[in-house]
Design brief:
The model has no long low-confidence stretch (mean pLDDT 94). Helix 1 packs antiparallel against helix 2, helix 2 runs antiparallel to helix 3 and helix 3 packs antiparallel against helix 5. The chain has 128 residues and is an all-alpha fold. The chain has one domain. The protein contains five helices and no strands. Pfam families: DUF423. It is found in: Membrane. Keywords: Membrane, Transmembrane, Transmembrane helix. It is a multi-pass membrane protein.
Length: 128
């Protein structure tokens, strides 16, 4: 499972760098300041969670089953949060309406909060 977590973290990191560069160069010309700012939030949170997953995948502070739970919460949360922001912030530029994704973003955020909270709980309750 550790390899899967680390590979996912690397994919999230790669995608966030590519999308960050895309936003800074290509999207800067077609999105307004608010849309670009929202897009950047999605990129930033994807990178934060790439780093978080690197920690989860390499730490000895979590049991394998705990890593699995945190992994799935983090992946779902990141996809719901960041991808919904990417689609919502670029909807005017693409001419596609993604308004129905509005409720998905906070659900993703909640999943991310839960994943971090669980890691905190697992670490603080770990017996030495």
């Amino acid at each position: 499972m550790e390899k899967k977590i680390i590979l996912t973290a690397l994919c999230f990191g790669f995608v966030s760098i590519v999308l960050g560069a895309f936003g800074a160069h290509a999207l800067k010309k077609i999105l307004d300041a608010d849309q670009l700012s929202s897009f950047e939030v999605g990129v930033r949170y994807m990178m934060y969670h790439a780093l978080f997953l690197l920690f989860v995948g390499t730490t000895q502070l979590l049991l394998p089953e705990q890593k699995t739970i945190v992994y799935y919460l983090t992946v779902l949360g990141t996809l719901f949060f960041s991808v919904s922001i990417f689609l919502l912030s670029t909807s005017k530029a693409t001419g596609m309406s993604f308004k129905y994704l509005g409720p998905v973003t906070p659900i993703g955020g909640l999943l991310l909060i839960i994943s971090w909270s669980m890691v905190f709980y697992y670490v603080i309750t770990k017996k030495a």
